[in-house]
Amino acid sequence: MNATKPQANNTAHGNSAQPHPGSADSITRATQSFRPGQPQRQGDFRVMRRLLSIVAPLSGFLALAAFLGVLGHIAATAIGTTGAYAVARAYADPAAPLAAAITAMICLAVLRGVLRYGEQMCNHYVAFRLLALIRSRVFGALRRQGPAAVDGKGAGDFISLITSDIELLEVFYAHTISPVCIAVVYGVVACVFLGSIDPAFAILAVCAYLAVGFVLPLVIARMGRSAGSAIRGQHGSMASFVLDSLRALGETIQYDRGRDLLERLDAKSQHLTQSEERLQRSQARGQALTSVVIAVFDLAMLAMVCFAYSAGGVDVAGALMAFVTFVGSFGPVSALASLGGSLHNTLAAGRRVLAVLQAAPATPVVTGRKPVEFDGASMQNVTFGYTPDALPVLRDVSLTVPEGSVTAITGPSGVGKSTTLRLLMRFWDPQRGTVSVSGRDIRDINTADLRRVEAFVAQDTQLFHDTVRANLLIAKPDATDEELKRACRQANIHDTIMALPHGYDSQVGELGDTLSAGEKQRLGLARAFLHGADLLLLDEPTSNLDALNEAQILRSLAQDQERSSHTVVLVSHRPSTTRIADTVLRMDGGAIIDALGAPAGATGNGATGATGERSTHPEGAQACTLGRG
Questions:
Q1: Which residue ranges does the record annotate as region Disordered (predicted)?
Q2: Which of 313, 334, 358 is the endpoint of a domain?
């Protein structure tokens, strides 16, 4: 087993006056304040452009929806225009037949209903297909971004983003894109018709449509933008708080903190209610302003029509048809005005979704490189911090892990032990130094190859609300029953599974709540055994196990390592666990300060040593207790 440690002066970084850079608090603060590649806050128009770019695969249906919408609004307006023409004709000749006009109005009304149905069907088909596409892309983006995207962020916030935020985009795709197209095309048609009666009418219509359909939406949007953004953030915060509260209900009852919890919930609810009230008030003001502006333009058109009629510029039929057409033409543009208020929530949700889709992964996926076969791993002069401006978690760390060895890493909490394993998995890339597998920089290895040769067991095993079998098959979907049972026997969990009501087909419950912490941890180990990786990275693999189960797990690890020459790197505070290691590395202050189990002389920076025997000397147990503060 080879190990390298820095010179003694590296320990000077562990200043007791400051918290450990790798402590849980510092990591949480860092990951909450930093998202790799997260874009800055985007303006409304930029958000809409980005959302529009997703529509391309369904642009044909969207164009059909707009076409049907234009025809539908023309039919609706034509009902009033035809009626106005019939009234004018009856005024000029009381004996004139009206049957044709009435029949036309009935046909137009039926046609309007059919066209409206077709428009809405196309709009919602586009919207719901796109929501499914966006949801798939969000999951894909989170997968690519890896743990860096979710560490330190509440699960409830992600649930809010993946469910309600994406659902809100339906307003944009079903009730925004085609209405804008309809308003533009229909406005042109209406202006042409009014201009054919009197050019002055067309000029007034252009001014009215621009005011109601363009200026008012901008004004209304500005009135409620801050409230809309606040609401989406508060919804995410509320979801996280409620989810955490439900999971910690036992502790809340145990320590009688129910009143405090309710007070915090009430405060969050009040803040959310206040934001929603502000948004509702801004929307109400926007609707009132829209109604006033439309009424002003209606009066202006009435005055203009009366003036044109009195001046002899138009006859009764032209005057009535122009006024009725103008008054009935505000439907499409007034819908745009209402969007200025209703889109606040939608654009805020879109901004959150796009932040995930646009975020650059902390470790980009690598493909097209030469396949790799595992023959050891190493870290050379690695320095790493979770944010560029934070204190480094690891400082100039170097170590070598030969193939077939067992390495244990021990030391106080928060000194970078778990971070070392995560860098070997390439969840992050170091700011300085190199992490290598099989002599190649880990950044130059296909991501699929890296996942094939490595298996990582975290301190907390994550289980899906599914069967035991399904949770195990994540590691190897094509595994046989015999392989499943062999892996579970290695993890000393097979008998426990068989005692469940349905054996391997038993449900584990949400987050594996039907199992104890130790049983979940052993299932996590069984996953790693089933995966069959060459390098096992185990983070506190026996922390939740009793002495009997720990002994069985360690015996399985030793037998598996001897039988298949698997390489193991484990983090543990337990002397009994680290005793199986060839070499025990002790960390403090983000650096390796001691290496036991290697020959004498492996003490300088860059020095290495090797041994082919287990570290069973009593000093091995002593080494694991040093620095445990």
A1: 1-41, 604-629
A2: 358
Q: What pLDDT does 41 receive? A: 52
Order across the sheet with 535-539: list the strands. Answer: 454-457, 535-539, 567-571, 406-410, 583-588, 591-596
Cα–Cα distance measured from residue 262 to residue 240, given in angstroms and rounded to the nearest whole number: 15
Q: Would you tell me the crossing angle of helices 177-197 and 330-358 to the nearest 10 degrees?
A: 150
Lowest mean pLDDT among 47-51, 254-258, 298-302: 254-258
The per-residue pLDDT for 436 is: 94
Residues 598, 530 share a domain: yes
> For residue 441, what are the domain limits?
8-13+369-623
Q: Which among 558, 562, 581 is positioned nearest to 571, based on CA atoms?
A: 581
pLDDT digits (tens, 9 = 90+) for 95-111: 778 888 899 999 999 99
pTM value is 0.66
Q: Are 518 and 381 members of one domain?
A: yes
CB neighbourhood size of 101 (10 A): 18
161 lies in some domain = yes
pLDDT for residue 423 is more than 90: yes
258 contact partners, CB below 8 Å, separation of at least 6: 252
Euclidean distance between CA atoms 39 and 500, whole angstroms:
48
pLDDT, averaged across the chain: 81
